[in-house]
Amino acid sequence: MRKFLRQSALCIGIVAVSVGVVRAKSGKAVRIYFIDVEGGQSTLIVTPSKQSLLIDTGWAGTRDPDRILAAASEAGIKQIDYLVVTHYHGDHAGGVSQLAERIPIRNFIDHGPDIEDSATAKDLYAAYEKTTAKGKHAVVRPADGLPLKDVQVEFVSAAGDHLRDPLPGAGVANPYCDVEKDVPDDATENSQSLGMLITYGEFRFLDVGDLTEKKELELVCPNNLIGAVSLYLSAHHGLAPDNPKALVWAIHPMVAIMNNGAHKGGSPESWQIVHDSPDLQGFWQLHYAEDAGQEHNVAESFIANVDEKSDGNLIEVLANSDGTFEVRNSRNRYSQMYKGPR
């Protein structure tokens, strides 16, 4: 089976990750849109050469595809070159079929079959399999990449497995591992999440989907296999315990974005770990976390949607190859620039 899956991946140009850093054209930014799908995930990445990578599609229905299409229109793209489905829960993969009816999706990337067997899971996965027939399909494993021109995509987790060798510049002992207790296995699709590091010159963005605590710790304990990152999307919508200190503090994010909903994610424990991360320069949220209290929400300027009645405001990042990047809030047009590598 593994051999067949790897051959499937090769059909669309999945590549083994090589050492070294992609050096992109100077003066041109990668645009990243963190789309509000009400506590799910959908992140659109558009390269300077207008190649597009969409990570997840949010919920089923028309609302989330509409919001994705609005971001695509703003970015000036008319197709999705690569759709990466981190795992098969309804808040991440529910909108695949509806989106594919509205915009061409050329390549579907995932971790392989759904491991859950409830009726809901089976129905969602059957709809997904039907939709993948409209394009090319590949299963990826840790250390695989995607053949994008301007950026480097490195999968760090997939199907419950993780990187075995450190990425370039990583591999040092993680002093925060001692604070983590033994954690149980997770038998849900969350543990199967595709995690990926996206690199554009000196800019590094980490997204691990809904990867759960034990799998996260395998990436950074006893040694940090990822290294420091510029931008971190909080795992599992900012839920605890899936943003452990040993992960967040080890990757040392310059800026963090939490893709929470009004009543989903944004756990005070996880929020505090991110907030206290050494040398964190910026912290942004897609929603005000209604259940966390004001003391566990960032200032209003840094929140895209401030009440339960969301207008679908998004957070946009413009990243330069020298490592500098700008974060923008579409609700109030507030923005901040962040400097490159420390």
Short description:
The chain is an alpha/beta fold and 342 residues long. The chain has helices spanning 2-11, 63-75, 90-93, 96-100, 119-132, 213-220, 245-251, 268-275, and strands spanning 15-16, 30-34, 43-46, 52-55, 80-84, 105-110, 136-139, 144-146, 152-158, 161-162, 195-200, 203-207, 231-233, 255-258, 282-287, 303-305, 315-319, 325-329, 335-338.
What does this structure look like?
The protein is of the alpha/beta class. It has one domain (2-331): Ribonuclease Z/Hydroxyacylglutathione hydrolase-like (Metallo-beta-lactamase, Chain A, 4-Layer Sandwich). The chain contains 8 helices and 19 strands. Strands 1, 8, 9, 10, 11, 12, 13, 14, 15 and 16 form a 10-stranded mixed beta sheet that branches. Strands 7-6-5-4-3-2-17-18-19 form a 9-stranded mixed beta sheet. The protein is globular. Residues 1-11 and 17-27 have low confidence and may be disordered.
